[in-house]
Specification:
alpha+beta
Length: 101
């Protein structure tokens, strides 16, 4: 879909990608172009890595003083990991919705 106006995101089908540049908006429906099982596997692997990173972060505040992270660094990293997990879970839900169609 090519348009001079930005489409209403709520009206787009699930699995659409949108990009705008210099007044031109392109919407591409990706459902048929994706291997949904492969995409789901990749997202689940990223979620598992995120969980491992959270565990590593818990250990980062302990141990030898010279290798210990500052509490504010740990909180910052924990926040980033939480945001990443939320985004991955949203992606997983989209893939599940596409698989049901």
């Amino acid at each position: 879909i090519f348009s001079d106006e930005k489409p209403n995101l709520a009206e787009l089908p699930v699995g659409s990608a949108i990009n705008s540049h210099e007044g031109l908006t392109i919407v591409v429906h990706l459902q048929d172009a994706l291997d949904l099982d492969k995409e789901m596997k990749k997202i689940k692997e990223k979620i598992e890595k995120n969980a491992r990173d959270v565990k590593k972060l818990e250990k980062a505040g302990k141990g030898k003083f010279q290798y210990r992270m500052k509490p504010e660094e740990i909180e910052s990293a924990r926040g980033k990991l939480a945001e990443e997990l939320e985004a991955l879970e949203r992606q997983l839900e989209v893939i599940k919705q596409l698989q049901q169609k």
